[in-house]
Amino acid sequence: EGSKRWGKRKGGGNGYGNGNGGGGVVVGKKRVMVVIDHSTGAKHAMMWALTHVTNKGDLLTLLHVEVEALVIQGPKLATVLSQVRKLEASVLVLSQTKPSPFPWSSREEFVEECINKADCLTLAVRKQSKGVGGYLVSTRWQKNFWLLA
């Protein structure tokens, strides 16, 4: 069935809060966008989105940006943010990597910028180690919270 947590709500809104803290009836369908590449983390992000965000009838958009090709021109961040606006995504899901030993990696910076600048709810997910299980999820409001699923 999927998740009823992130549905569009009556009275407008984009499925992640309507400003008054109230509940709401889940209606309509939403577009969930997942940024993918050839990594295992991207596959985990896609599976997490399918099992925790989408419902029957929702649209799932997989966005793969080929930065070196001329298929999609421009920097990765600007392209992703542009596609979120153009496709009116309700939720953007990204893969999150383990923290780098370096002060700030370009991948971590990209994920953080997407979380802070996207016009929709943005979730970065990383599968926990096999011994622990679950996922680490980061949003604009909470970093690396553990979700056992």
Automatic annotation (TrEMBL):
Positions of the UniProt region annotated as Disordered: 1-20
Segments of skewed composition (Basic residues): 1-11
Top-level lineage group: Eukaryota
Chain coiled-coil ranges: none
Transmembrane segments: none
Name of the molecule in the record: UspA domain-containing protein
